[in-house]
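Input set for joint prediction.
Command: fold jointly, output tokens.
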Amino acid sequence: MSEEPTPPLDPMSLRLAAANALIRRRRTIKPRDMSDKPVEPKVLAAILENGNWAPTHGMTEPWRFFVFTGEGRQRLADFCANLYEKITPKDQVRPDKLEKLKTQPLLAPVVIAIGMKRQEIEKIPEIEEVEAVACAVQNMHLTASAVGMAAFWSSPPISYTDEMRSWLGLSDERDKCLGFFYLGWPESEEWPESTRGDITEKVTMVAN
Ligand SMILES: Cc1cc2nc3c(=O)[nH]c(=O)nc-3n(C[C@H](O)[C@H](O)[C@H](O)COP(=O)(O)O)c2cc1C
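tokens >
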């Protein structure tokens, strides 16, 4: 008895499968789980370029990226640790948090500080500029995961300070730092899994 051949997938199902694979493969992999394999400039450029293709209301393209590599990561780590000590009341300084700020940037070959440049005329609401930057980070994260890279969006409270913003060179007080995007290659060959709650609990259908 011969087996029936599996019918080929229709084009829509194929495209959907490709989108599902890309989106569901995106994973947070933290610097402590990154190897010291360098990130080739060509790959980094491709990731940044995809960030640049995020949607943007009014074409303001508010994302700004500050890429720290090599010794630059040490400068970033020193600044972050000093800033944390400066703005935290002495009796509230957490040694584990301080240590993380000092060491984490050195565990990833690339750390990208994420900036939002506020539009001069403020025509577009600020929240939409932040949303556009988040879309840019998502584009970069999807690209990184697609090629098997480890990536992590970190947002310690120091990110949102004026000191951080201005140290990065975001000169307008309305600009913002939205955290750090760590990039590298995973140490493990095993790709991590994640879960999400039921989508039907987060959707309200209104048909009439
Ligand atoms: C805006 C933003 C900020 C984040 N900041 C942190 C952070 O400071 N620390 C952290 O552990 N994870 C942070 N994350 C990553 C989440 O922890 C991560 O996305 C979540 O655990 C789900 O895992 P997944 O990305 O693999 O799906 C952040 C994510 C977003 C979108």
